[in-house]
Amino acid sequence: MWMMAPFILNSLLNFVVSLLVAKFLGPAEYGRFVLALAVAVVVQTLLFDWLRLAATRFYSERDRRERPQIRATLDSAFAVLAALAALLAIVIWALGIDLTLTHDLAALAIGVAISNGLFDFASALVRARFQDRAYGALVISKNLLAFALTVGGALLFRSANVALVGMMISVAGSLVVGRAGLIDADAGFGAAERALVTRFLAYGLPIVLANFLYQTVPLTNRAVASQINGFAEVGRISLAFEIGIRIVGAVASALDVILFQIAVHAETTDGVGAAHNQISRNLGVVFAVALPAVAGCWLILPSFQELFVPENFRGPFAHYFTLMTPALLAFALINYGVNSAFQISHKLSPLVIAALVASIANSLCVIYLPPTPDASRFAVAQSISSCSGLAALLAMMFLLEPMWPRARDMFGASIATVAMLAAGAPMRAMTPGVLALFAQVTAGAAVYGAVAYAFDIGEMRSVFAPKIRARLKR
What is the domain partition of the chain in residue ranges? Predict the structure, then answer.
């Protein structure tokens, strides 16, 4: 469970870095920066994400000792793909190919895809072995270096290019720091097996294709918005979405990093039925965390904007964030909840179908929603797209996978969230600032916690009540 601490710290530091980079670059240059990052995410997902998924699913401490060919195959595949991607980046830069991005930004985007893919792959390897210290070393060193190099580059040079270079160097530095936990002595390239590549691809490709389709939505929206509304507006809408994803993702993914591994362990030790039962419990926990997290973000939005958002992003930030709150909730439920039900059952085609639905919905919205003077229609399109994908996925889970959370968890979390909003909403009229933020967070957390305890959401009362009674007796 201690692995959750560095995971949350990673998300928190990423959140701080994003805000500072936006502050120092300004809306227009930040727009170029996030568009390059969107390209990097798509490339990373398409080329490297299947290796991260395979490491999470098929690699463990036991495999490290007894089956070195697994790690050898993963490493060899990553090296080949990274070399091909680096060659592509060099060709784009050398030929000066300019599209929506300039050729230097496009080449740097591919470089960021390689470096971030390597970091996520390395993190997955140590998480799969439950190596808390090694994971913590990777996360902390990367974020400290990113703070110095990415934020420092943005501050000193006001350049998206320099900030992207800082990101790549920070990853390289973190891997040097954490190299001891990443070395498998017997896993040389010679031990790699082609049959394992086929197995890893068969498992990861549907998930990768689904993620790829989801990632093309913000990339498409940012690219089109840059042509219609300019890079400054792309920067403003992107900051709202990126911060929302980081906040909600930090909470939900910190649970997912533990919960899915527990389900995999249950399948290995106690069989498929135990894994399905664990996934059902996981779904209830993720819903009970994601729903109040998104609602709480909206609740504190005025004070959050006043305290943390750079001045030249304020106003549009709150507007776009509000429009995209449904997308944030759908993102959390899809990625950290519903997807795992299909992953554990090895039925992955529904993930691709749902992502295709989301992609088509976004395209239709971009085409047919009325034009707006700002990027509002792209924010609305993002929410409609994400909710369409979630609806399709839930429908298929209802038909194919009888893994549903407890009704008490769903109902209790909904009632607790409504109570939290009722308690905190009047405080939105307070002058935005530290006092208002503290009052809303304190009241909201107390109300939600009390109702959640009463409903025993996620079996919280069952877990904590005996411990509380034992302490009181002492």
Answer: 1-192
Give the C-alpha distances (Å, rounded to integers) separating 247 from 120, 211, 297, 304, 356: 19, 20, 8, 12, 26
Q: Which of 167, 157, 159, 63 lies closest to 110, judged by CA?
A: 167
pLDDT of residue 63: 72
d(CA 124, CA 78): 13
pLDDT for the residue numbered 222: 93
Q: What is the pLDDT of residue 299?
A: 94
List, for the chain, all residue ranges whose pLDDT scores fall below the cut of 50. 1
Q: Closest Cα to residue 43, out of 101, 111, 119, 93?
A: 111
Contact 453, 461 (CB under 8 A): yes
Place of tokens 């429009």: 323
Which residue, among 48, 361, 81, 63, has the nearest Cα to 207 in the 3D structure? 48
- Tokens representing residue 203 in the block: 């498992």
Quote the CA–CA distance of 15 and 243 in Å, as a whole number.
6
Distance (Å, whole) CA 111 – CA 167? 10
Cα-based angle 314, 320, 321 (whole degrees, multiple of 5) = 90
From the list 208, 186, 200, the residue with the least C-alpha distance to 63 is 186
Instruction: Report phi then psi at 375, rounded to 5.
Output: -100, 25
Q: Count the residues in the chain.
A: 474
For Cα atoms 186, 190, 192, give the angle at the middle one, nearest 5 degrees.
Answer: 85
C-alpha to C-alpha distance for 451 and 416, rounded to whole angstroms:
5
Distance (Å, whole) CA 142 – CA 148: 10
Q: Hey, what amino acid is at 383?
A: S
Q: Which residue has the tokens 């995971």?
A: 7
Q: Is 131 helix (H, G, I), strand (E, B) or coil?
A: coil
Distance CA 17, CA 97 (A): 30
pLDDT reported for residue 472: 63
| Residue 221 near residue 378 (C-beta atoms within 8 A) | yes
Q: What is the DSSP string of 269-321?
A: HH-HHHHHHHHHHHHHHHHHHHHHHHHHHHHTHHHHHHHHS-GGGTTHHHHHH
192 with 72: CB under 8 angstroms?
yes
Number of C-beta neighbours around residue 330 at 10 A: 25
